[in-house]
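Dear Dr. L.,

I hope this message finds you well. Following up on our conversation about the binding site, I have prepared a predicted three-dimensional model of the protein together with NDP. For your records, I am including the exact sequence and ligand specification that went into the calculation, followed by the structure tokens. Please feel free to forward this to your student if that is useful.
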Amino acid sequence: MKKQALITGATSGIGRATALRLSAAGYAVIATGRRAERLATLQSEIEAAGGSCTTLVFDVRSEEEVRRHLEPLERVDLLVNNAGLAAGLEHIDCGDTRDWDAMIDTNVKGLLYVTRVIAPKMVAAGSGHIINLGSIAGTEPYENGAVYCASKHAVHAISQSMRADLLSSGIKVTEIRPGMVETEFSEVRFHGDRVRAAAVYEGVEPLTGADIAEAIAWVAQLPAHMNVNDMVLMPNRQAGSYYTYRKKQ
Ligand code: NDP
Ligand code: 8X3
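The resulting structure of the complex is given below.
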């Protein structure tokens, strides 16, 4: 029987690439997100390549939706808590509280709701692996990013505590903490402004969703006695939130 991998936020970017990569590695994929059409396309792509994919359409911000869709799952061997976003880039005195709610409700509470349903299944099975998508923003706060950085600091803290909580059950917890990855992330952050989003990646070759998926697939196939607690990944021209070398165009 194939191992089951549940990936939240599989309609785009890192989550979509991870679903494809884990399917290629032999997992039966359970792909989730809010955009049903995107999930249907992903499912067709995976099935055309001979893989197995089921899709679940729900919003991780709703505890009721999370429970309704995930409680019926019999087994999950690998959970990739990926769904998340940045919304806005402003000083704290100018931020939109609706953006703040979206980030905290998705990046922190959504991750917790999903974990609360899946972790007991792993504990009962006596095995499992949870991979949380953190960020370099989880240890390096930057100007204009107070709430996004706070949400990823929360993911960093939750990942460390979860690892301790689940030690005796033999469940691995890994936090993947990327720097700059070109996905729909910046377009979402700038509320659909593609020009502003493109400027984020000007003069630098960013990582891709497939790069992060490769790291996730590697971490997931390690022997049972070996875990990666925390992995930081950046483009070779980035050294942190404030240090990016950009080639003049
Ligand atoms: P994308 O915007 O490309 O993908 C985000 C995914 O999250 C989408 O599939 C989206 O699906 C899903 N999502 C967002 N909100 C919700 C919600 N309320 N309920 C369910 N799903 C939701 O961005 P990335 O792939 O870049 O981001 C993935 C993760 O990686 C995030 O946690 C992000 O913080 C993190 N990250 C990204 C970095 C980057 O530079 N790109 C760097 C470091 C970390 P849908 O809209 O269909 O619901
Ligand atoms: C995404 C990376 O530095 O743009 O988490 O916030 S950053």
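In brief: The mean pLDDT is 98.

With kind regards,
A. P.
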